[in-house]
């Protein structure tokens, strides 16, 4: 049964004292931040958030042409990428009676692509923010959602990508995955990095994400990415101390990719939509939509939300302590 989503106006009206049970965080949190939920790659505000056009080669365009070019700088961190050889796999899960979003299970054929070995870190995102005049959705909204360390999620003013899940300024955590970033922010980072390197970086499609999480052509049958022992492969509710952790500290999956289960949710490039039973080749999701896709689970979730087929919808302008992202590329 799909959970009820309270309207963002409720949050805005009671923002000074509203509290949210932590188990309901993802349900509530993906209502956005009250700003315009612009399509990916466009910008409702004029001025310094404009980004340069970079087309994805996964079959869709993640951004549209805007008026200000992205500055070129040599000050960036080159991402470590892993080759995922193309093939076919079964996407989704028909065995789950409680997760209709994962049905119907269907065959997907994918071309080879590159996937980030790690989630994008604070250090990597800092290079972007230090060399570009981009303003994140959290900065525009003036707040983000944070965890109280016990059981509640609440809105905290002034929290941005430089802060941890508790809303504290990060200290010596440059190797943690960046959080408090929206889908819009993630795409802006991809476009900036593409401009610096001459390679086209993008978010993975949802199909690419699940294929890589399942080990690509290995066709791993694990519940989680890299194995069935959740303690070995993921930071989640029982072992994370309700915090993010440095990337790459758990066991990688069979492709050598880390943290595809747990640590932070990961944005995909697709708009959220129902699956089709038809066989597909290099699918990119619906042509339009108002909610993006999150995959992988996070530091505060239990095992039922960490399975490789779990998918969640979330407004593209949402920023909170759960979502981060990882890079993909069709440039082999």
Account of the 3D structure:
By secondary structure, the protein is of the alpha+beta class. The chain has a single domain (8-329), classed as Alpha-Beta Complex (paralog of FGE (formylglycine-generating enzyme)). It has helices at residues 8-13, 25-29, 122-131, 137-141, 183-197, 206-213, 230-233; strands spanning 20-21, 81-84, 87-91, 106-110, 113-116, 143-147, 152-157, 201-202, 265-271, 280-281, 292-295, 311-314, 323-324, 328-329. A 4-stranded antiparallel β-sheet has the order 2-5-14-8. Strand 6 (143-147) and strand 7 (152-157) form a beta hairpin. The termini are far apart.
Order of helices and strands: HEHEEEEHHEEHEHHEEEEEE
Morphology = globular
Overall tally of domains: 1
CATH topology: paralog of FGE (formylglycine-generating enzyme)
From the alpha-carbon coordinates, what is the Rg to the nearest angstrom? 18 Å
The major pleated sheet works out as:
4 strands, antiparallel
Binned strand content: 15-25%
CATH C-level name:
Alpha Beta
Class derived from helix and strand content: alpha+beta
Give the helix/strand layout:
Layout: H1 8-13, E1 20-21, H2 25-29, E2 81-84, E3 87-91, E4 106-110, E5 113-116, H3 122-131, H4 137-141, E6 143-147, E7 152-157, H5 183-197, E8 201-202, H6 206-213, H7 230-233, E9 265-271, E10 280-281, E11 292-295, E12 311-314, E13 323-324, E14 328-329
Parallel strand pairs: 4-10, 9-13
Antiparallel strand pairs: 1-7, 2-5, 3-4, 5-14, 6-7, 8-14, 9-11, 11-12
Question: What does this entry show, briefly?
Answer:
16% of the residues lie in helices and 16% in strands. With 332 residues, the protein is α+β, with helices and mostly antiparallel strands.
